[in-house]
């Protein structure tokens, strides 16, 4: 049996606005909630715009129709970026976000007219009424072995998955910046024992002297293995890895293929220890893992090389043993530029899967698209 795209539609596309990086979750009450960050359209990619806020569109009919965009939250110090949104076992919706800060440029006086954007300190908000209202932003605690705020782009929170572990923990893998001259990004874990009210440091789970790690997704298999797939920028390791994997064709010369793939780390002891990282054959970034009701894993990844600008999907066995060999389904491949992708998915009540992603349209605007995928 195979999977096919059976429908595509626009969730948000508005003249004058730039929208990207969607998530989708089923709210405790049943509707679907798509969130994304939005700022004014500038005619070019500007992922650290200081006016980025979080907007949401809601569907009450399993994705057939969508509401107008509505404000979810803003960061009072600047702009939001790279979120994760999750429905928790306690019936709340939890949103975590990294951010930017808007500060006066160096040398400005008391009435600054010139401002600059720099890395900020991450925050979280929560909704207890099905995503209609949200708390004020609350800052995460700093990490003991990473740069906190500027000049780090992320301070231990990035676009990532969240695992509600059976023992009551929330596990949020993420990215942080090493306190070294190399400015290296490592993969780490945040842990909460009280449904996200307070957070502690779970340590490093992926690091390398050359490769960088960011934007992870996390999943626990039926046998209890925890899988984390990181967006990996392998640097100088990239060409050798692609050659060893046996890929051929024009894409092996494209940096968007060579220098962006998913790296796997796994834990067989409920997150106490982690395997060494290894490259997978899944190129692109970032990834998202959705556990289907039948136990299989629906994996999506963003793609940005010539001829494949959008996102693809693989359906894995419940333990993810066919991660490198499962057949690939193209969800979308025709974005105007590489400013696209970032898929996230949710299973619909009828067993089909909704994939949401960011798309660069022919009118030069970026917006949020959806695709319904069904098993034949």
pLDDT < 50 runs, ≥5 residues: none
Which percent range fits the helix content?
under 10%
Q: What proportion strand?
A: over 45%
Task: Characterize the overall form.
Answer: globular
Order of helices and strands: EEEEEEEEEEEEEEEEHHEEEEEEEEE
Structural class: mainly beta
Query: What is the CATH third-level topology name?
Result: Neuraminidase
Straight-line distance between termini? 6 Å
Give a short account of the largest sheet.
Answer: 5 strands, antiparallel
The CATH class: Mainly Beta
Per CATH, which architecture?
6 Propeller
The pLDDT mean sits at 96
User: What gyration radius follows from the Cα positions, in whole Å?
Assistant: 20 Å
**Would you count the extended β strands for me?**
25
Q: How many separate domains?
A: 1
Please give the count of helices. 2
Description:
This protein is mainly beta. It has one domain (3-103, 117-375): Neuraminidase, CATH 2.120.10. Helix content is 3%, strand content 48%. The chain is built from two helices and 25 strands. The protein has helices at residues 238-245, 255-258; strands at residues 3-12, 17-26, 32-40, 53-59, 70-73, 80-87, 93-104, 115-119, 123-127, 138-139, 163-164, 170-177, 185-192, 200-206, 212-220, 226-233, 261-267, 278-283, 287-291, 297-305, 308-316, 329-332, 341-347, 353-360, 366-375. Strands 6, 7, 8, 9 and 10 form a five-stranded antiparallel beta sheet that branches. The chain has a four-stranded antiparallel beta sheet with strand order 1-25-24-23, with no helix packed on it. It has a four-stranded antiparallel beta sheet with strand order 2-3-4-5, with no helix packed on it. It is globular, with a radius of gyration of 20 Å.
């Amino acid at each position: 049996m195979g999977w096919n795209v059976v429908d595509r539609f626009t969730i948000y596309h508005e003249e004058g606005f730039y929208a990207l990086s969607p998530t989708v979750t089923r709210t405790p009450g049943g509707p679907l909630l798509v969130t994304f960050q939005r700022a004014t359209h500038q005619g070019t990619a500007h992922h650290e715009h200081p006016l980025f806020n979080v907007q949401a569109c809601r569907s009450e009919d399993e994705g057939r129709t969508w509401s107008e965009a509505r404000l979810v939250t803003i960061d009072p110090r600047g702009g939001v970026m790279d979120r994760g949104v999750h429905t928790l076992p306690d019936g709340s919706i939890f949103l975590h976000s990294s951010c930017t800060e808007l500060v006066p440029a160096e040398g400005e006086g008391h009435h600054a007219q010139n401002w600059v954007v720099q890395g900020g300190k991450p925050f979280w908000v929560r909704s207890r009424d099905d995503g209609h209202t949200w708390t004020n932003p609350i800052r995460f605690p700093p990490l003991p072995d990473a740069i906190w705020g500027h000049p780090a782009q992320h301070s231990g929170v990035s676009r990532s998955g969240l695992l509600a572990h059976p023992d009551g923990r929330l596990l949020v893998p993420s990215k942080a910046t090493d306190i070294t001259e190399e400015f290296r990004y490592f993969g780490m874990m945040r842990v909460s024992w009280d449904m996200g009210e307070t957070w502690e440091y779970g340590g490093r789970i992926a690091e390398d002297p050359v490769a960088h790690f960011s934007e992870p997704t996390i999943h626990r298999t039926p046998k209890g293995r925890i899988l984390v797939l990181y967006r990996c920028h392998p640097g100088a390791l990239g060409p050798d890895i692609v050659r060893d994997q046996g890929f051929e064709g024009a894409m092996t010369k494209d940096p968007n293929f060579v220098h962006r793939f998913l790296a796997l780390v796994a834990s067989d002891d409920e997150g106490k220890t982690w395997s060494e990282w290894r490259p997978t054959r899944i190129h692109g970034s970032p990834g998202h893992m959705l556990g289907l009701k039948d136990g299989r894993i629906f994996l999506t990844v963003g793609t940005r090389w010539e001829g494949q600008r959008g996102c693809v999907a693989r359906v894995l066995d419940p333990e993810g043993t066919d991660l490198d060999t499962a057949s690939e389904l193209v969800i979308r491949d025709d974005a105007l530029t590489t400013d696209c992708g970032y898929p996230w998915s949710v299973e619909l009540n009828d067993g089909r899967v909704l994939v949401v992603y960011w798309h660069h349209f022919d009118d030069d605007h970026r917006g949020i698209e959806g695709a319904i995928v069904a098993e034949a």
